[in-house]
What does this fold into?
Amino acid sequence: MNSSVAVIAMFCACFSRFGLAEDWPQFRGPDGQGHSSAHHVPLEWGESRNVIWRQSIPGRGWSSPVLAQGRLYLTTAVPREGGDGLSLRAVSLDPATGKIIWNVEVFKPSASQVPGIHSKNTQASSTPVVEQDRIYVPFGHLGMACLDSSGQVLWRNSDLSYPPVHGNGGSPAIVDDLLLFSCDGSRDPFVVALNKFNGAVVWKVPRKTSAQKTFSFSTPLAIVVNGRKQIISPGSGAVSAFDPRDGREIWRVRYGEGYSVVPRPVFGNGLLYIATGFDRPSVIAIRPDGGGDVTGTHVVWTLTKGAPNTPSMLLVGDELYLVSDSGIASCVDSRTGQVHWQERIGAGFSASPLYADGRIYFQDETGAATVIKPGKTFVKLAHNDLGERTLASYAVTDGALFIRTESQLLKIGESAR
It folds into this structure.
């Protein structure tokens, strides 16, 4: 089986394992790369237009909503009475009505366990992942837990503490029987795999790079290259591919002092696409078929102008789409790095773009969305403004988008349908 066929097969397996094709069970959807098979996705909306329902969400959180088997899930952090810490909670909602089905406390850290965070962050910014009737809810250095679809907590793991910087952000990924995620704090960063059935540590691998600032927030991506599974995990100073069986590093590419890496990797057309973090962000395309340190041999192209610090990228056909935090969107030839176009589409950006129903959706931090037609020429199809701050990424299903704002979860759909 060649590498491209293997990738397609793995993505098909993801759709089968996670649920129905219209489900959105993890950060960036079934394939982890922002693609949806949904139909009749709304093109236009506003504060009072094509909003099917609004549901207030208690507390604060920027975890993106996920959708699986007829239920929505997200996390939130609610201040405890008297100011003594937080109640970290998982919330389930009915996607048809927006009604909260259950709201369960998962962890209750004291104030001393909850350090200061970045103004754009919360203590509930990592997105859950759902597999069958299990919901895995991450809270960074404060713990990981698994709940069933009724809201019962099946296991907790709060033993993987590390010194965070700016709070939490990265989300987990499921590969076979493992739950994988990165723990990149101010010192001694590591990548870990838990047994998804009981939360026990299966392996834990330290990151070893020359980066002075070791904190990052990226979400790993599972790929298959030449029949072999790899876990791609960017961190400060380097991106590494790990063997999911034992955590052994297969290859790495160094990028100097790049730190606070947030975007999730993207894979396709035989190449892996990585954003390298602050202070001088760049996008690099890598051939992922090497071994050892392949910095000097497997980097195919590099792009610096318009590179994102926070939003993940989007691969559609032969083109790679990205948006910088400052709002410059780009369309790039995925094989060569040639820039087809760059356009300003809004204010600051944190949410990752979505490809659905033949369109690309970008959501900025003010609540404004720009919808474009994929292609080598910039064609804007719609501009939609909700008028409320949002940093979370979309969830999508047939006929609807789910958008989390600072205080609410909204369902957007074509009212006339």
